[in-house]
Design brief:
Order of helices and strands: HHHHHHHHHH
Largest sheet: none
Distance between the termini: 14 Å
Number of domains: 1
Helix content: 55-70%
Strand content: under 5%
């Protein structure tokens, strides 16, 4: 749970609280007033790409997590796929696009350096939670497999898949302009699935 405290401390340090509503719109979106013009240029650069012009983020990144969710969903019927789950590795946003066939991959990588803090912090925090959940899930699935308990394996696969999908929904919402993250009690409940 230490990483969760670090996430909340980082949000507080960056001033991500209700006082943002009282700031000018550029500052509330994590854009310094003198960088507002540069941000407008980035919005224009991504306007014809499959990259959200409000956040400068692309949903293609979530395909990396869709992969592991699909594998986990198939494990109850094909337990040998757990080996592939164990091989899955986290990838940063730029790493994903470097390995991607995404048509605007170079633009996505470059635009990521200009994502407003309002979206970048909750996005990265959510990605951290997803990566942690994958690691925990694979450990729990491995334990169920070692117990030779197919029913426990099925229950844990379902819980892992459902939990990861909830976090992916949060990440998707952030990509599309929401800065809302999960409340601490939601995270605790999800991580303790």
């Amino acid at each position: 749970m230490g990483h969760l405290i670090a996430i909340r401390d980082r949000q507080k340090a960056l001033g991500m609280c209700d006082k943002d509503a009282m700031m000018g719109s550029e500052q509330a979106h994590g854009i310094a007033a003198d960088n507002g013009q540069a941000f407008l240029l980035w919005q224009e650069k991504v306007s014809n790409a499959n990259i959200n012009s409000q956040t400068l983020l692309a949903t293609d990144y979530l395909n990396h997590f869709n992969e592991i969710v699909m594998l986990i969903d198939m494990v109850p019927d094909m337990p040998e796929l757990l080996d592939e789950c164990r091989e899955w590795q986290p990838k940063s946003y730029p790493e994903h696009f470097q390995d991607s066939m995404f048509s605007d991959r170079d633009l996505a990588i470059e635009a990521y350096q200009h994502v407003p803090v309002e979206f970048l912090v909750p996005f990265e925090d959510t990605v951290t939670l997803m990566n942690d959940m994958v690691t925990q899930s694979v450990t729990r699935l491995t334990a169920a497999q070692e117990l030779n308990d197919p029913e426990l394996l099925k229950v844990r696969c379902h819980a892992a898949s459902r939990g990861l999908q909830r976090l992916m929904d949060v990440a998707n919402a952030i990509i599309h302009g929401s800065s809302r993250t999960m409340a601490q009690n939601e995270i605790d409940q999800l991580m303790g699935f």
